[in-house]
């Protein structure tokens, strides 16, 4: 254990110089909520973390009387952009078929 003492002393100096001692508690309070980075990610698979089964987007969109997207959307939400891609209100391309 004795051999570690110089290292511990050196590390303490480095931390003090770097401002870590004071910064760590303050930073913990100031951290923005970034799911998956500063807090648990409750939707690690994106939309389909929640939208499966009865909650599937296929069901949700059917309830909204959305046009049929069978065969057009494999990857959610990336493939939704094939129609929903411009910055307009609903971001629906006028060429949507
Ligand atoms: C954390 C869970 C969660 C995630 C992640 C999530 N949703 Fe939802 N979504 C919901 C809930 C809850 C509702 C409301 C369901 C209801 O009304 O029955 C909803 C409703 C919807 C609806 C229907 C809206 C309506 O007016 O009925 C759509 C469309 C939708 N989500 C799309 C998406 C898309 C696209 C993504 C990914 C970019 C996404 N959601 C990610 C939970 C989630
Ligand atoms: C084939 C083209 C196409 C694809 C693919 C598509 N949409 Fe749409 N979507 C439309 C069109 C067209 C409208 C109607 C726009 C309007 O009324 O202004 C619409 C409307 C919507 C609305 C509004 C519905 C309402 O009545 O309020 C939601 C929400 C939506 N789409 C979600 C999605 C999601 C989520 C995906 C991917 C899973 C998706 N769409 C994929 C064409 C598409």
Q: Could you explain how this protein is built, in words?
A:
This protein is an all-alpha fold and 97 residues long. The chain is 36% helix and 0% strand. Mean pLDDT is 75; it is low at 11-23. The structure holds heme C (2 copies). One heme C (HEC) is lined by residues 42-43, 46-47, 49-51, 57, 60-61, 64, 77.
Give the termini separation: 73 Å
Mean pLDDT, as a whole number? 75
**Shape type:** elongated
Low-confidence region ranges? 11-23
Keywords:
97 residues; elongated; mainly alpha
Quick description:
By secondary structure, this protein is mainly alpha-helical. The protein has 4 helices and no strands.
Blueprint (SSEs and pairs):
Elements: H1 5-17, H2 20-30, H3 47-50, H4 57-63
Bound molecules: heme C (HEC) (2 copies).
The site of one heme C has 12 residues, from helix 3 and helix 4.
């Amino acid at each position: 254990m004795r051999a570690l003492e110089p290292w511990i002393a050196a590390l303490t100096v480095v931390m003090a110089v770097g401002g870590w001692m004071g910064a760590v508690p303050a930073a913990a309070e100031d951290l923005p909520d970034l799911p998956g980075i500063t807090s648990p990610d409750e939707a690690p698979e994106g939309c389909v973390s929640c939208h499966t089964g009865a909650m599937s987007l296929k069901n949700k969109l059917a309830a909204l009387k959305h046009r049929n997207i069978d065969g057009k959307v494999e990857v959610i939400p990336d493939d939704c952009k094939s129609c929903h891609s411009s910055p307009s209100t609903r971001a629906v391309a006028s060429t949507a078929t």
